[in-house]
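Subject: for your reference before the review

Hello V.,

The reviewers asked for a structural picture of the protein, and I figured it would be easier to keep everything in one thread rather than splitting it across files. Below is the amino acid sequence we used in the manuscript, unchanged from the supplementary table.
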Amino acid sequence: MAPKVLVSDKLSETAVQIFRDRGIDVDFLPDVGKDKEKLAEIIGQYDGLAIRSATKVTPTILDKADRLKVIGRAGIGTDNIDKDAASARGVIVMNTPFGNMITTAEHAIAMMFACARQIPEASASTHAGKWEKSRFMGTELTGKTLGVIGAGNIGGIVCDRARGLKMKVVAYDPFLGEDRAKEMQVEKAELDDLLARADFITLHVPLTDQTRNILSRENLEKTRKGVRIINCARGGLVDEAALADMLKSGHVAGAAFDVFSAEPAKENPLFDLPNVVCTPHLGAATTEAQENVALQVAEQMSNYLLDGAVENALNMPSMTAEEARVMGPWVALAGHLGSFIGQMTDEPIQAINILYDGSVAEMNLPALNSSTIAGIMKKVNPDVNMVSAPVIAAERGIRISTTNQAKSGAFEGYIKVTVVTSKRERSIGGTVFSDGKPRFIQIKGINIDAEIGRHMLYTTNEDVPGIIGTLGQTMGENGVNIANFTLGRKDAGGEAIALLYVDEPVPAEARAKLAETGLFTQIKPLEFEVAA
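And here is what came back from the structure prediction:
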């Protein structure tokens, strides 16, 4: 069955056609996103949801989204999506951070010009038949110091454009390294230093607990007299009431805001102030940007639903389509290793340690980690997936650690997973052979070569004669066909293990018969999610 996508906001017809051309069923209902009850009623039919800003994806909506795998936001901001609830439900949240970078950066520069030269008010005055030439005395940008808070994708473009305007650029960004700052030809500074020096301050950071009210009343008081503030990033980054007070007092000479703490903004402390320029969240509102983000979200969602590629996800490690093709067998292996340990472990897990050796150590390890953790957690939550598993593990206080190392043995690459409980450590290793099939290669330190099937039986015993015959005879007497049989032992006469890949689940009667022999210390049926 083809995946099915709902487009609940206005998206270009070209983007909708991308879904159709890729073989995805799509319902284009651009007004349903504004109707919470209708959206909740129909969302259970869809594997994907493509939105802009009008659709609000709440926990209530997600509770009804039984099939939903991915939400694609055509744009950068995802404040309208409850990402924690989506992660807990195992739903990937994607955005399109690159489609409107230039447009948003250009709007910030335009707002800076408008603020510096009082263009909107001068235009309104002239339209009203006045000629107040002496009233609108502006300031040049050339030679001024621009303080950029957030020097990422959009902030970086603003820095570049500002340098072209012959401004001195000072940037505050905790993730901006000295080498990158030199490459951008900007001065890296601490926030207090930027506040004290900047003639203009522009914000280009997401709204997080760390950035909320980054320009608080206290920080605004640290700015130099006559500063102008531009915010085309996110509402909530600036204390708007405090800024209004400082605009009225003259400490802040002007402000230009495209975003507000509450949107749609019908009322705001900044409204009706003569030295404030306001626009209704137009940062991405150009024909080019709207088309770009729409096309991008359609491609990203299609790539995920059809090929497993994860691009620009906010709650899961990204994995390109090429990585998905190469890593597919390794992702499956990681899940199988985790599933084996999860099914074998009854007591609470305290820690998960994952070792990557050889070629696999060079791959996308966060994605492999997520698959491993998901495999482990499926025993306690069958609906868990690569998105929700790390959330569940964190909620349970499970420590996750990884080690990667150069090739150390006979295999070009392998993964070893160890879990720690209050009673024991348990480990299993695996690799992917040249045929693309995952294999278990070590359990409890015992080397094996076991093909992985949907239904398996794991036994442990002392290394004594008769084990193979007993297992084979018991399976035959109970109508269980053995597809593959693997044995391993530490030493002659020591501990030994067996893994049987069987065509159907081993019935309880057969397991009871094995237990009655007294030969086995452990008899455990296993089940794995194996592609047909």
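For the response letter, the relevant points are probably these. The mean pLDDT is 92. The first strand starts at residue 4 and ends at 7.

Happy to draft the paragraph if you're swamped.

O.
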